[in-house]
């Protein structure tokens, strides 16, 4: 619901909100993820039948750029499926979420994001590789909080230019040179 509170007509408020979003999620006790397109399923039964909950895996939520920080930053995430049926908490679904997203279990089960910085810049970028966004720049802007940097949002600059500016800010902020090994890839 966070986007309902952002005045997207004001470029300064939009930029400030995008740069603050990760901290908003980090400060949240609980984030709710409603996977509206996920058909009703019983994850316990799916595991017992070794189907590994295919509808959950295929949810578009795991491919959206903005949901990466929703998954990582809060203390926990409560997943709901169609008709508001509870799927479970991130903490209890962490193994399955790791299989789906390739985000390490320690990130998904940890209560403290302090250990996020122990993962290289290239590794953190890899968590976003299969994610997309409606606006080209948003694929990049959705990563700002993952690296703890601020960059102004310039809609219309294109994804490549936004990615270049993000890389420059990361390079100026961190001694981790794995950023140099990460190449720009156009979104899906």
Radius of gyration of CA atoms, rounded to a whole number? 17 Å
Tell how many strands the DSSP assignment holds: 3
Helix-strand sequence: HEHHHEEHHHHHH
Q: Which strand order does the major sheet show?
A: 1-2-3
Oligomer: single chain
Strand proportion, as a percent range, falls in 5-15%
Helix content: 40-55%
Structural class: mainly alpha
The total of helices stands at 10
Distance between the termini: 25 Å
Mean pLDDT: 83
Major sheet attributes = 3 strands, mixed
Low-confidence stretches: 48-52
Inertia-based shape: globular
Protein name: HET-domain-containing protein
Can you summarize this structure?
With 188 residues, the protein is mainly alpha-helical.
Structural notes for this entry:
This is HET-domain-containing protein. The chain is mainly alpha-helical and 188 residues long. The chain has helices at residues 11-27, 43-48, 54-57, 67-72, 90-101, 105-109, 121-126, 138-141, 144-147, 159-173, and strands at residues 31-35, 77-81, 85-89. A three-stranded mixed β-sheet has the order 1-2-3. It is globular and about 40 Å long. Residues 48-52 have low confidence and may be disordered.
Core attributes:
188 residues, mainly alpha, three-stranded mixed sheet, 42% helix, 8% strand, globular
């Amino acid at each position: 619901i966070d986007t309902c509170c952002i005045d997207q007509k004001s470029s300064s408020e939009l930029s400030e909100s995008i740069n603050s979003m990760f901290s908003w999620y980090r400060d949240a006790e609980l984030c709710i993820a409603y996977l509206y397109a996920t058909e009703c399923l019983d994850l316990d039964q799916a595991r017992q039948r070794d189907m590994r909950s295919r509808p959950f895996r295929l949810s578009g939520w795991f491919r959206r750029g903005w949901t990466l920080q929703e998954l990582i930053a809060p203390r926990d995430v409560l997943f709901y499926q169609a008709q508001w049926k509870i799927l479970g908490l991130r903490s209890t679904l962490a193994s399955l979420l790791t299989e789906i997203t390739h985000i390490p279990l320690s990130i998904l089960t940890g209560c403290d994001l302090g250990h996020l910085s122990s993962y290289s810049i290239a590794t953190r970028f890899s968590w976003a590789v299969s994610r997309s966004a409606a606006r080209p720049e948003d694929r990049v802007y959705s990563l700002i909080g993952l690296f703890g940097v601020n960059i102004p949002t310039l809609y219309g600059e294109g994804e490549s230019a936004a990615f270049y500016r993000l890389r420059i800010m990361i390079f100026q902020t961190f001694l981790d040179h794995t950023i140099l090994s990460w190449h720009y890839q156009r979104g899906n």
